[in-house]
Amino acid sequence: MDLPTKRRALLKIIVLGDSGVGKTTLMNQYVYKKFSQQYKATIGADFVTKELQIDDKLVTLQIWDTAGQERFQSLGVAFYRGADCCVLVYDVNIHKSFETLRNWHEEFIKQADPADPDAFPFVLLGNKIDIDGGNSRVVSEKKARDWCASNGNIPYFETSAKEDYNVDDAFLCIAKTALASE
Ligand code: GTP
Ligand code: MG
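Above: inputs. Below: predicted complex with guanosine-5'-triphosphate.
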């Protein structure tokens, strides 16, 4: 059945972050409920779609997974344009992946060039909280939340793509955040 257009929304979500933090794995867990231990670098960018109902709207998330490795990045400005939300991902066990969030954030704003950069919706995910029962984490939840607070109150989720922890909640927030800004 065709829904009236005002009850449908297609939302473009772009996922950014260092290589190996788990961008592809999070997406596969969310969309296919599958986890793979094996690392296979993403080359270029690819998207998957997922439909969900939010209030009276049928929302189609178009989730763009990107390459963290510089040599596999080949995204032009057009790729970023029209994004409704940018998801930043880091690994709570690797400090460098937290430090580079600033660069990913900056790069996104530069490329996407949104009308109001301060109001553009981001969501931050701190992934791999399962590793070593949390004993090997080097970025505290507080530190991450402070970063979010000082960057325009970015919503924050701690996730495990392996254990499927907080993945649905995070993407629901991502969808709602994107929808609100559409
Ligand atoms: P690029 O495509 O190079 O940018 O990397 P990526 O961010 O897509 O990382 P990817 O999803 O391929 O995950 C890298 C490795 O981390 C894989 O071996 C995954 O199995 C593993 N991994 C991802 N998420 C988790 C997690 O939550 N917990 C654990 N223990 N391992 C994870
Ligand atoms: Mg990947």
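The chain has a mean pLDDT of 94.
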